[in-house]
Specification:
The complex is a heterodimer of chains A (377) and B (305).
Chain A: E1 20-31, E2 34-45, E3 49-53, H1 60-68, E4 75-80, E5 83-84, E6 95-98, H2 110-119, H3 127-138, H4 154-166, E7 172-176, H5 184-201, E8 204-209, H6 212-218, E9 221-226, E10 229-234, H7 236-241, H8 246-251, E11 256-265, E12 269-274, E13 278-283, E14 294-299, E15 305-307, E16 316-326, E17 330-336, E18 344-349, E19 362-366, E20 373-375
Parallel strand pairs in A: 3-8, 3-9, 6-7, 7-8
Antiparallel strand pairs in A: 1-2, 1-4, 4-5, 9-10, 11-12, 11-14, 12-13, 14-20, 15-19, 16-17, 16-19, 17-18
Helix pairs in contact in A: 2-3, 2-4, 3-4
Chain B: H1 2-23, H2 25-55, E1 58-60, E2 63-65, H3 71-78, H4 80-114, H5 119-127, H6 134-145, H7 150-157, H8 172-182, H9 184-196, H10 200-208, H11 213-241, H12 245-251, H13 258-266, H14 272-304
Antiparallel strand pairs in B: 1-2
Helix pairs in contact in B: 2-14, 3-14, 4-8, 4-9, 4-11, 6-8, 6-12, 8-12, 9-11, 10-11, 11-14, 13-14
Classes of the chains: A alpha+beta (377), B mainly alpha (305).
């Protein structure tokens, strides 16, 4: 694997088609009374890196397998590239899959594994060989073609699985938790590589993962799923900053929840009163359903900054440090705020000495009212 | 006292050494296998050695001449009757292995891939015929294939034939049919085990890459279950070469196999050395075929890479 010094920013703007590649309409998959997937509707665009994110059992793998054709919807429809997929077996779909276990054929070497799907196409004049080599180069496995699957490391097996799917030039590449078997360092390296590869080949990628950081780092858009339902579909930034409900907020990293009273509600905004933060005007989330006179606000721990010495901020809240947890480059402070039923969790980088703040110190925290987002319960 | 005092240090050392020896892994290993090892030695190796020894001796009516001779092997290898019997035995056993594997594979495949929750029930059902004796199972084929047997009466009842066919029983086909049935379970089980080990995701991966059910079977499932097929073929082939009961009961004149000749030499003909030489020859040929099969498969596998 050649080291590349500069990594393009994962969310750098790029030309992306608005044309739909995968259209999932009201898809339900039931096993008896249990609904693995419940009325899911979703459009995945052409050339997009799309992630299905959720805890185990949320239906994300079921949905992926239905796109591949290994499972069929109980009701609803799936179309790929404008073509309805009903009744089309997996071997005749324009999709290819990278399996969680990689599923490398143990009786074949790397080259034969990659060429597996091409054999049937009976390509002329060394075309097959050329495409295999191109695919191996894409995943940096050039020269390992004669190795047996049993002689490969976990990371290499993963690359073979990728090359084997990419060589088919599918319209959609489906990835079922492809990085979960790798150790942390390799996983992070592969995240960058997968993203780079997707940008290079321009194929629509659909990734299934339970790792929120993986989804945030690689995707153009994410669908967060819980219990067979799609809770939110949005860009990583929006999902992280403006989660639609507490469940989504909680799943994507830490979130401080603050109870609020609704003072005023109109078209796009809400005015609320909170005990700790006073009166706040905030955007109303699309799916906001008024729950009596109350609402929940959320603020990410890193959006609260410690105010040093006599520094002041337009919006600040005072409290007392009750716990401190050191994490190397950052420190987590647990700060009790008078009036709030739960103490706030604050993440502060250690460059100014947050790791030296003694427990019991009274501190002030600066915040941006924009960072306080209203969400459904 | 002084003698004891002087003597004690080396004594303690030997004891320590003995303990070390007893605790060493190879010694413990031998100790563990010794009951089975002795059992195999007494009941397998010693009889074979007795047979091999006999094969180099000569029978003189009631006594045995223990001077070394290769005469028995000359007879075993050159006499047309023994050569024919040996060829026929090999032909029958290879045909039986082929048919057994061909019939066993679909059954094993069905249980492994479509057995669902009832896999163990299916396997249990397959072993049921083995609750009766081997002899009874062979006899039941006599009932089926015989002159007034089930098959003949059935065919006559359907008007397909006018009089009972004698072509069914007392020939090598009858031996092949009976042996194929008798050894079915021994082929089903190793094939089933190797099919169970085939990762189902591999079949899915083949399908995902464009293979239909038949192609993915030929390109993934079959090659990966090959070890089971080979062991099934060997498990059936090796013992059937030397089968004695089946040809005796259903083989008639045309179904006689080498084991019947060997039995005759040890029995009525009372020529133990010749019987021994025939046994050793058969044993060597079977070992060579088995060895060659394994070698060929290994070479093919290496070439396939």
């Amino acid at each position: 694997m050649p080291e590349q010094p500069q990594i393009e920013r994962p969310h750098a703007d790029r030309i992306q088609s608005e044309r739909p590649m995968i259209e999932i309409r009201n898809v339900t998959r039931s096993y008896g009374a249990f609904k693995a997937l419940d009325d899911a509707t979703l459009t995945i665009r052409e050339g997009e890196f799309f992630s299905l994110l959720g805890p185990s059992g949320c239906g994300k793998t079921t949905l992926l397998r239905m796109i591949a054709g290994f499972d069929n919807p109980t009701s609803g429809s799936i179309a790929v590239g404008g073509q309805p997929m009903e009744g089309i077996p997996p071997n005749r779909r324009p999709t290819n899959m990278v399996f969680q276990s990689y599923a490398i054929f143990p009786h074949l070497n790397v080259e034969q594994n990659v060429a597996y799907g091409l054999k049937r196409l009976k390509l002329q004049g060394g075309e097959e060989k050329r495409r295999v080599e191109e695919a191996l180069a894409q995943v940096s496995l050039t020269g390992l073609g004669k190795r047996l699957a049993t002689e490969l490391s976990g990371g290499q097996r993963q690359r073979v699985a990728l090359a084997r799917a990419l060589v088919m030039r599918p319209k959609v590449l489906l990835l079922d938790e492809p990085l979960s078997a790798l150790d942390k360092k390799l996983r992070e390296q592969m995240q960058v590589e997968l993203r780079r590869l997707q940008q290079a080949v321009g194929i629509t990628f659909v990734l299934v993962t339970h790792d929120q950081y993986e989804a945030l780092a690689m995707s153009d858009r994410i669908a967060v799923m819980f219990g067979g339902r799609i809770a939110q579909v949005a860009s990583p930034k929006e999902i992280y900053q403006r989660p639609v409900d507490r469940q989504v907020a909680d799943f994507l990293g830490g979130m401080n929840f603050v109870k609020a009273e609704i003072v005023e509600e109109n078209g796009a905004s809400l005015v609320v009163d909170t005990l700790g933060f006073g009166r706040i005007k905030t955007d109303k989330p699309k799916a906001f359903v008024r729950n009596g006179g109350g609402a929940t606000l959320g603020i990410r721990p890193e959006r609260l900054r410690v105010l040093w010495d006599n520094a002041t901020a337009k919006f600040e809240v005072a409290g007392k440090v009750v716990e401190r947890h050191y994490f190397g480059e950052i420190t987590h402070l647990i700060v009790e705020i008078p009036g709030l039923e739960k103490p706030l969790s604050v993440t502060e980088t250690n460059d100014f000495g947050a790791d030296d703040i003694p427990v019991g110190t009274s501190i002030r925290l600066a915040y941006d009212p924009e960072a306080l987002v209203a969400m459904a319960d | 006292m002084t003698v004891a005092a002087e003597g004690s240090p080396p004594l303690r050392m030997t004891r320590a050494r003995r303990n070390a020896l007893l605790q060493s892994e190879p010694v413990q290993g031998f100790a563990l296998i010794s009951p089975t090892f002795l059992y195999a030695l007494i009941l397998l190796v010693l009889p074979i050695l007795v047979v091999i020894a006999h094969s180099f001796w000569t029978q003189h009516y009631l006594t045995i001449d223990r001077t070394f001779t290769l005469e028995n092997y000359r007879i075993a290898l050159t006499e047309p009757i023994y050569r024919d019997l040996l060829w026929r035995s090999l032909y029958i056993s290879l045909t039986v292995s082929l048919f057994t594997v061909l019939l066993a594979y679909p059954i094993a495949y069905f249980i492994s891939f479509h057995g669902g929750r009832h896999k163990s029930l299916w396997l249990f059902l397959i072993t049921i015929p083995f609750w009766t004796s081997y002899l009874l199972r062979v006899m039941s084929w006599k009932v089926i294939l015989g002159y007034n047997g089930v098959l003949n009466s059935g065919l006559m009842g359907l008007g397909i034939i006018d009089e009972p066919s004698t072509a069914l029983l007392y020939n090598s086909s009858a031996v092949i049919i009976t042996l194929t049935h008798a050894w079915a379970a021994f082929a089903i089980l190793p094939i089933f085990v190797s099919l169970e080990k085939v990762d189902r995701t591999l079949v899915e991966a083949a399908t995902d890459l464009g293979d239909g059910p038949l192609r993915s079977f030929l390109r993934v499932t079959l090659p990966l279950s090959a070890p089971g097929v080979i062991s099934a073929a060997l498990i059936v082939m090796i013992p059937t070469v030397g089968d004695y009961v089946t040809p005796k009961l259903v083989g008639g004149k045309d179904g006689v196999m080498i084991a019947n000749a060997i039995q005759a030499q040890f029995g009525k003909a009372a020529n133990w050395p010749l019987g021994a030489a025939l046994s050793v020859t058969t044993m060597l040929i079977v070992s060579l075929i088995a060895g060659a099969t394994v070698l060929i498969i290994r070479t093919l596998q290496r070439m396939a890479r």
